Amino acid sequence: MASKRARDIMTGGVQCVGAHQTLLDAAKMMRDLKVGCLPICGDNNRLAGMVTDRDIVIKCVAEGIDPATVQAGSMQSKIHWIDAEADAGDVLSTMEQHQIKRLPVIDVKGGHQLVGMITEADLAKNLTDAQVAEFANRVYATT
């Protein structure tokens, strides 16, 4: 059997919050979509960053800032992503190396567009128990 690719593992149909939309908009989208993280897309509809529910609470609300006054694009930080054609080993390596639980999938050959997201639930559904256990050990193990 051929090795699974990122596009085989990912959840498709990912919605972005626009860089110029507010964190309040992002929070409402997260609520409605029942997700804890959204990709941020710039004016060119390309991936510009990620924002999590935790980011909104810790970096905005807990600081006394009204989320309706902050653009999602201001939350941008270093973004890690994977090519849709990358194999499962590369997916795991990227997530382990950067200690991330969500990985955007980009179709490099298809205009560098965001095509999906890989989460821990996607890994659990698509990889072997041994691969999932190794991932959990590397991402969650405390030293």
Could you please describe the fold and organization of this structure?
There is one protein chain. By secondary structure, this protein is of the alpha/beta class. Helix content is 36%, strand content 21%. It has helices at residues 6-9, 23-33, 53-59, 88-98, 120-126, 129-140; strands at 11-12, 17-18, 37-41, 47-52, 82-83, 102-107, 113-119. Strands 1-7-6-5 form a four-stranded mixed sheet. Strands 2-3-4 form a three-stranded mixed sheet. Strand 3 and strand 4 form a beta hairpin. It is globular, with a radius of gyration of 16 Å. The N and C termini lie far apart (36 Å).
Radius of gyration: 16 Å
Return residue spans where pLDDT drops below 50 for at least 5 consecutive residues: none
Number of strands: 7
- N-end to C-end Cα span: 36 Å
From N to C, what is the helix and strand string? HEEHEEHEHEEHH
- As a percent range, the share of helical residues equals 25-40%
**What strand order characterises the main sheet?**
1-7-6-5
Provide a count of the helices.
6
Q: Roughly what fraction of the amino acids lie in strands?
A: 15-25%
Largest sheet: 4 strands, mixed
Structural class by sheet pairing and helices: alpha/beta
Keywords summarizing the entry:
143 residues, alpha/beta, 4-stranded mixed beta sheet, 3-stranded mixed beta sheet, 6 helices
